[in-house]
């Protein structure tokens, strides 16, 4: 049964909230949406079925870095692989052979790759997949109409072309509207949603309204007992703001650097590595620093600017306290910033920022 698989293969004594319900549904062939906090143990919900289902599991994941992270953290006993455009021909062939021989339990793939003719024709020569899992499923709702239209075809391809009967969608971030979008996009029935607390109980949240956010931030990072030690991410809206704030913090002798998508890759990598190794205490970043970054001992997340939406806020504070220890999240409330975001939110008809 699944409890003994959990204990013997994965080495955990009991299920985390929601996992057992999700697993029972998935193993019974019922499509499911699982909404749970970052670090809530969602990956287990596609890993464990690989020990019970006949046929490989297909996991669709939006970022190569996330896929890499998943592969690195795969428990022993579960054979996982990926197909992507950076692979050598030999590597690709090895994975294809593994799939043909039924030796790969989980195949990770980016949605764009799944939609290529080459993958779809390859799939018709492979043994059938038993389950499709759409990881970070909020992207379906957020990106479907923007720059990744490929998401809207996913359902049809999974069900009709690949003939996979069961879909598991995973996300840490979903409002009711987003939940419905995801369910509609993947034909998951309403009763197929399993939702557990999306903000982990070890996170302590605070908000303040300041005369000067800059000096308040410096003070928080230098003197406050929650933020003056340990790794901290400071989220800013603009790239220029990240640079300016990092400079300010360095001026005040704080160990800080900035990260945003406009910085050269090697500099971003350097900042990320130093932060991971504990050689850099504070990263001042745009939301580009987030998905796929799994540093377990981040002790604080500070929103210097207003997040884009409630979902983004929940996602971003989820970077803190992944090791289960107490962690702190502070938001600097700025009336104008909030009003602006609110008007965007309502103008595109999406349920956001009800503040
Ligand atoms: N039943 C369990 N008991 C104890 N630990 C567990 C259990 N299930 C999963 N974990 C652990 O919890 C940690 C977080 O799990 P996981 O990475 O799957 O979270 P997640 O929900 O996928 O997070 P994210 O939203 O960031 O992708 C991992 O170290 C995993 O080994």
Automatic annotation (TrEMBL):
<comment type="similarity">
    <text>Belongs to the helicase family. RecQ subfamily.</text>
</comment>
<dbReference type="InterPro" id="IPR011545">
    <property type="entry name" value="DEAD/DEAH_box_helicase_dom"/>
</dbReference>
<keyword id="KW-0238">DNA-binding</keyword>
<dbReference type="InterPro" id="IPR004589">
    <property type="entry name" value="DNA_helicase_ATP-dep_RecQ"/>
</dbReference>
<keyword id="KW-0413">Isomerase</keyword>
<dbReference type="Pfam" id="PF00271">
    <property type="entry name" value="Helicase_C"/>
</dbReference>
<feature type="domain" description="Helicase ATP-binding">
    <location>
        <begin position="23"/>
        <end position="192"/>
    </location>
</feature>
<dbReference type="InterPro" id="IPR001650">
    <property type="entry name" value="Helicase_C-like"/>
</dbReference>
<protein>
    <recommendedName>
        <fullName>DNA 3'-5' helicase</fullName>
        <ecNumber>5.6.2.4</ecNumber>
    </recommendedName>
</protein>
<dbReference type="GO" id="GO:0043138">
    <property type="term" value="F:3'-5' DNA helicase activity"/>
</dbReference>
<dbReference type="GO" id="GO:0003677">
    <property type="term" value="F:DNA binding"/>
</dbReference>
<dbReference type="GO" id="GO:0009507">
    <property type="term" value="C:chloroplast"/>
</dbReference>
<keyword id="KW-0378">Hydrolase</keyword>
<dbReference type="GO" id="GO:0016787">
    <property type="term" value="F:hydrolase activity"/>
</dbReference>
<keyword id="KW-0539">Nucleus</keyword>
<dbReference type="GO" id="GO:0005634">
    <property type="term" value="C:nucleus"/>
</dbReference>
<feature type="domain" description="Helicase C-terminal">
    <location>
        <begin position="216"/>
        <end position="355"/>
    </location>
</feature>
<dbReference type="GO" id="GO:0005524">
    <property type="term" value="F:ATP binding"/>
</dbReference>
<dbReference type="GO" id="GO:0000724">
    <property type="term" value="P:double-strand break repair via homologous recombination"/>
</dbReference>
<dbReference type="InterPro" id="IPR027417">
    <property type="entry name" value="P-loop_NTPase"/>
</dbReference>
<dbReference type="InterPro" id="IPR014001">
    <property type="entry name" value="Helicase_ATP-bd"/>
</dbReference>
<keyword id="KW-0067">ATP-binding</keyword>
<keyword id="KW-0347">Helicase</keyword>
<keyword id="KW-0547">Nucleotide-binding</keyword>
<dbReference type="GO" id="GO:0009378">
    <property type="term" value="F:four-way junction helicase activity"/>
</dbReference>
<dbReference type="Pfam" id="PF00270">
    <property type="entry name" value="DEAD"/>
</dbReference>
<dbReference type="GO" id="GO:0005694">
    <property type="term" value="C:chromosome"/>
</dbReference>
């Amino acid at each position: 049964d699944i409890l003994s698989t959990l204990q013997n293969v994965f080495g955990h004594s009991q299920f985390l909230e929601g996992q057992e319900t999700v697993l029972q549904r998935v193993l019974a062939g019922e499509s499911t949406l699982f909404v749970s906090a970052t670090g809530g143990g969602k990956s287990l919900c596609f890993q464990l079925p690989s020990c019970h289902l006949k046929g490989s599991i297909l996991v669709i994941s939006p970022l190569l870095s996330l896929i890499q992270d998943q592969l690195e953290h795969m428990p022993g006993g579960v054979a996982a692989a990926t197909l992507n455009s950076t692979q050598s021909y030999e590597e690709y062939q090895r994975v294809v052979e593994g799939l043909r021989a039924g030796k790969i339990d989980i195949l990770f793939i980016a949605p764009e790759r799944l939609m290529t003719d080459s993958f779809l024709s390859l799939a018709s020569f492979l043994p059938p997949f038993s389950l499709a899992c759409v990881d970070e499923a909020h992207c379906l709702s957020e990106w479907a109409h923007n720059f990744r239209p490929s998401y809207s075809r996913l359902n049809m391809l999974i069900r009709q072309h690949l003939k996979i009967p069961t879909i598991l969608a995973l996300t840490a971030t979903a409002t009711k509207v987003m939940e419905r979008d995801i369910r509609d996009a993947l034909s998951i029935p309403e009763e197929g949603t399993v939702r557990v607390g999306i903000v982990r109980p070890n996170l302590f949240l605070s908000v303040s309204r300041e005369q000067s956010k800059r000096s308040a931030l410096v003070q928080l990072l230098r003197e406050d007992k929650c933020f003056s030690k340990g790794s901290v991410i400071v989220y800013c809206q603009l790239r220029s703001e990240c640079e300016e704030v990092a400079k300010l913090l360095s001026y005040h002798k704080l160990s800080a650097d900035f990260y945003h998508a406009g910085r050269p890759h090697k500099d971003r990598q350097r900042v990320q590595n130093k932060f991971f190794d504990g050689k850099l205490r504070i990263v001042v970043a745009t939301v580009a620093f987030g998905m796929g970054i799994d540093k377990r001992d981040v002790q604080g997340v500070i929103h210097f600017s207003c997040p884009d939406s409630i979902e983004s806020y929940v996602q971003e504070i989820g970077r803190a306290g992944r090791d289960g220890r107490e962690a702190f999240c502070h938001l600097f409330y700025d009336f104008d910033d909030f009003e602006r975001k609110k008007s965007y939110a309502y103008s595109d008809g999406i349920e956001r920022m009800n503040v």
